[in-house]
Amino acid sequence: MRGVRFTAVLGLVLLAGITLLFVTGLLSYAAYNPDLAAVNDKTPDKGWLGFYLFDWPTGPHWLYRLTQGVHVTLGIVLVPVLLAKLWSVVPKLFALPPARSAGHALERLSLLLLVGGALFEFVTGLLNIQLEYLFPGSFYPLHFYGAWVFFAAFLAHTCLKLPRALRVLRHGLPAADSDELASPDPAAPTVSRRGALAVVGAGSLLLLLTSAGRSFDGGLRRTALLTPRGGAEPGSGPNGFQINKTAAKVGIAPAETGERWRLTVTGPAGEFRLSRAELLAMDQHSAALPIACVEGWSTSDQWWRGVPLRDLATLAGFPDGRPPGVLVESLQRSGPFRKVALRDNQVRDPRSLLALGVNGEPLSPDHGYPARVIVPAAPGVMNTKWVSRLTFGEL
Amino acid sequence: MRMLRRWYGEGPLHLLLMAASFALAGYAGVRLLDGDTLMILVWFVGAAFVHDLVLVPLYSAADRALRIPVARRPALVNFVRVPLLLSGLLLLMWFPLITRQAERYEPASGMSPDRFLGNWLLITAALFAVSALWLVVRTVRARRRARNGRPSASH
User: Fold this and answer.
1) pLDDT value of position B151
2) The last residue of a domain, from among A152, A176, A209
3) Measured between CB atoms, does A103 come within 8 Å of chain B?
C-alpha cells in the first residue's frame, strides 16, 4: 500500500494546496499594508521578501473574507494530507547510508527544512486561531518568515520530485525501477491504496464540514462544530455577531466611552474634538460590509451606519475629495493593532465609515461604542474599535 | 564536470537548485531566528523530530496493538481503525480548545469553549456508529450473497 504511487497522489494534492496557501498568505500580508507605516509593520526587517507588496484594494468588499477564509480553511483541510504524505515517506528517513554523496546530504538537509517548515507553519497557524500562543514570539514574523524558509525548500523539492511523480502516475512505475517507499517484505495488506486515499479524503471532508461554517452567520456557523468561532453567535439581536476582542478583554472602562468621550480629528485645518452627538448630527451614510479576521473566520455583511472617513478628512483640511491616509488610534491600551494606518484609497472609498451604529442600533460596547472604523476588504484588526483619534496626512 | 559528478553525486542543475533554495531559506531564516533564536530553532527542527520520532512511532504502535485482537480476520480492523484515526486527528488539531487550555478564547470572543469537548465526543460517537452500521450492512449483504450463491433447493 505504501509506495511511490500513494506518495505521488498526495504530493500532487499538496503541490496545488500549498501553492494556494502560500499565495493567499502573501495576500494576507499585503492586506495589512505593512509598507505604509511603521505601526502596520510587524516585520520591519522583511527586506526583499516584501518585493511584491501593492496597495491593498477596497473592492470587492468580500476580498479579504474570501482570501483569508480560503487560507485558513484550506490549511485545516490539508492537515490529513500532510500527515499521510509524511507517513508515506517514513522509510526514507531511515535509509542507509544516511548520505550517498555531498549532493544527497544537501538534499536531506533541505528535507529537514521542508518537513520542519511545513509542520512549523501548520502548528503555528492552528495554535494561533485557537488563541493559544505557545510559540516563541509574535505570530506575524514567525509565520511569515517561516513560510519563506519552508517555501524555499518546497520549491526545490517540487523541482526534484514533480517529474517522477507525474511519470509514475501517468505510466506507472517503470519495470527497471524499484519502489523505494514500498516495504520489501510487506505484511498482509489490511487496506488498499484506494482505501487509504479514501480515509485521507474522509479526514479532509470531516474537517471541511466542521470548520467552513465559521465564514458565515447564523445556521451555517452552527455547523462549525470544532473550530474556534463556530457554534451559536456570542449574542442576539443587531449586535449579536462575532466579536474579535471584547471591551472587557482590552480593558475599556465604561467611564471612557460615556458622555466624556470625544473624537479628536487632526489635519492641516487644526485639531477638532467631536462628541458622539456632534458626529450623529453630520451626514450619515450606510455600507454593508463583513468583519473578516486573519484567523479565518468572518461574518456575513453587516449594515453599518456612520460618517464617511472622507467627510472627516474634509473637516480636517482636505476638502478636494482626494484625502491622504489616516492614522487611527483606539482607546485600548494594549494589542498589537491599537494604532493602525489606512491608505488614501481606503479613506477615499465612500463605504469606509467611522461607524456609530450597526444593523439599525447603536454599536454595542463590544463592537466599539462610541465609534469604530469599518473599511471594505480590510483585515478585521484594521477596523479599529473605540476610536479616540484620527490624524489625517501624518502616518 | 565529471569531477563534479564524482564528488557531488548529482548533476550541476541539482547543485544550482540546492544553492538557490538554501540562499533563499537563509535570507528568510536569519530573519526568522531574530528573536528567541534557540527556542525558534527548537520549534522548527523539533517539529520534524517530534513528528518522525514520537508521533509516527506512537500511532504505528497503537495500530499494531489494535490489530492483535482481530488477527484472524484482518479486514475487520479498519472498522475500528478508521473512526479512531479520525477522532484522534481532531483531538490532535483542536486539543487546546477541547481540553480548555486555550484560556484566551472566552475573554476575547465572548464565547464559551465548553462545547468543544462535548462536540468532539459526539463526533467520535457518530464516527463509530457509522462504522458499525457499515459493518452490519456489509455483513448482511455478504450473508445474503452467500445464501443466494448456494445451489438453490427450490428449483
Assistant:
1) 56
2) A209
3) yes
